[in-house]
Amino acid sequence: MALEISTNPMAIGAIAARLTEEFGADLHDVHVQQPDTVVASCDRARLRDLAQRLKGDPEVGYETLNWVAGIDRITAFESVYHVYSWKTNTYLELHVEVPRATPEVDSVVAVWPAADWHERESWDMMGITYLGHPDLRRILLKDDFVGHPLRKDYVDLVENHPNA
Amino acid sequence: MPDQFAAAAPDEAVKLALRRIDEANARGEGSNVEGLEFNEIVVNMGPQHPSTHGVLRLVVTLDGELVKDVIPVIGYLHRCKEKLAEKRTYFQYIPIVDRTEYVASMNCEWGYVMTVEKLAGIRPTRRAEFIRVITGELSRIASHLVAVGTFTADLAPLGTAMVFYMFRDREVILDLLEELSGARMMFNYFRFGGVRYDLPDGWVEKCRAFMKKMPKLIAEYEALVDDNAIFLQRCMGKGVITQQDVIDYGITGPNARASGVAHDLRRTRPYSVYPELDFEVCTESHGDIFDRYRVRMNELRESVKIIEQCLDMLPKGPVQVGSLRAPYVITPPPGSCYVGQENPRGEYGTYIESDGSRYPYRLKFRDPCFCNLQLFPKLLSGNKIADAVAISGSIDLVLGGIDR
Question: ipTM for the complex?
Fold first, then answer.
């Protein structure tokens, strides 16, 4: 199998237009961030399905997950997925809002295997639960650490570090 | 008094390894032989182990000499980099970025500074761009020397010969960078809109002289290793990363290029003055240990080529945007952006979200080693334990970046 990186990719505007046309029902706020990134958001209920279709799209095909990050927006959390398309040599930044009361979102490990550790990190740091993740453990902090430090309301207490 | 020699209680990773053994046995896939009490053993490799090149811990399930399963445990070097960003101004944060991937700190600084510049709409001066490429590529050479040197030390045939040659020459580069920035490894040299100091007198000549010597030195390294039968036997066909692995796990850098994927952000997502420079993206086709080593050696040559071109093309002018001479407070407008930078180990990306204040609202690093390490369970399983050491050496991990 030859993996070719396109040297003459579709214009980023054309990709954004195609995404709106193809996935318009699920993708919201599609806009272009120059030079090569499409930024969009989607509902958390539709995430896994959308991820599957984005990956399988014959023309764009976001096959590689670059990273996942949790962001604390005070009113809610956000899980950001940054994915790469080899066919067009462009990126998609997908924002998914996760309510603060029930910080849960479907895991995309089944679609993009690379999501495994990134989702663990996001859970560790931000406390977003990725439903269906095969092994959601802390990754950077100790197993017995209390709290999720990248939340804006996190207060660092001695009790949060047992056995330290 | 607590008994300091008492066995520590198994932690989550060890429990997981034991659970997987039980599950495999229950499925009838275990290698349990009737009458033997212990067939598979769980071994902690690290966190203090010479071949992991840092505080990486691998919980390895061994069946005799064969690696059945690997569970990497990371976080021993976690220094809360992303949390620290919340209470540091953009300017104060530059020296902290140095300490993420400390083997190539110039490149890390570059990635961070580029992201902030993109957010704030700052264009660095042209002379600064060339100096950045020179320092970045010097850093890449130094980093590859460390990577290949320590990796060959893990393989028995050469002992530490290669390390000494490579660290000898790396020291020349560190001296050059020290003369430039004042620090040997943690440079704190990049500034928004340029770099901190202009090149000192005579620096260009010194750098050029070393670059002239470099091809001979590379030939010397290759003469040591390339025809060594034991080295080849231990490297050829071992630890193959397929192109599907590259797609699935987001492998980048020399590890991806050794599998024939010509992904190099200097070409695929060009930044700085790379479009004006003539260099090749080095690829190999097999994706085994030997190809990863070859890609790094070829990249040394390409870096030398790039530096020589930059020294020739180096324009005159200021090294920093005048109005930003003391940018102690910089406030990018609200917004977010992600910039990837081709680090010696792959795509080192910085995602910054600004709320218009002096501090980043959210800063996230995408570290190449973190993504590459994720492949370890798949890559090491099924190999002999000695080969696992060789493979993990060839992946070139820096724990400072992984743990952040």
Answer: 0.89
Same domain, yes or no, for B142 and B291?
yes
The answer to whether B179 touches B301, Cβ cutoff 8 Å, is no
The answer to whether the beta carbons of residues A43 and A30 sit under 8 Å apart is no
pLDDT digits (tens, 9 = 90+) for B166-218: 889 999 999 999 999 888 888 889 988 888 888 999 999 999 999 999 999 99
- What are the distances in angstroms from CA B349 to CA A82, A140, B101? 11, 19, 12
The enclosing domain of B359 has a CATH number of 1.10.645.10
Q: Phi-psi region for residue A61, left (φ > 0), alpha (ψ -120 to 50) or beta?
A: left
State the Cα–Cα distance between residues B136 and B325, nearest whole angstrom: 22
Which position has the token pair 């995404």? A19
Cβ–Cβ gap B82/A66 under 8 Å: no
Q: Rounded distance, CA B31 to CA B63, Å? A: 8
pTM: 0.88
> Helices A12-23 and A47-56, interaxial angle, to 10°?
130
Rounded Cα gap, residues B121 and B130, in angstroms = 19
> Which is it for strands A129-131 and B40-45: parallel, antiparallel or unpaired?
unpaired
Choosing among 3.30.460.80, 3.40.50.150, 3.30.70.920, 3.40.710.10, the CATH entry for A12-160 is 3.30.460.80
B302 burial (CB, 10 Å; 0-12 / 13-18 / 19+) is buried
Q: What is the pLDDT of residues B130-152, one digit of tens each?
A: 999 999 999 999 999 999 988 88
Q: Within its chain, how far is the Cα of B346 from the centroid?
A: 7
The gap from C-alpha B161 to its chain's centroid, in whole angstroms, comes to 23
Which of A1, A39, A44 shows the shortest CA–CA distance to A20? A39
Domains: count for chain B: 2
**Residue B343 vs residues A3, A78, B38, B108, B254: alpha-carbon distances, Å:** 21, 28, 44, 7, 10
Domain end position, chosen among B56, B73, B90 = B73
Domain boundary among B73, B104, B126: B73
Minimal C-alpha gap between B48 and chain A (Å): 17
Q: Quick check: is B3 in a domain?
A: no
Instruction: Tell me the residues of chain A between 59 and 98 that have a Cβ less than 8 Å away from chain B.
Output: 63-67, 69, 71-72, 80, 82, 84, 86, 89, 91, 93
Distance from CA of B287 to the nearest CA of A (A): 13
Q: Domain range holding B293?
A: 81-403
Does one domain contain both B28 and B145? no
Are the beta carbons of B162 and B224 closer than 8 angstroms? yes
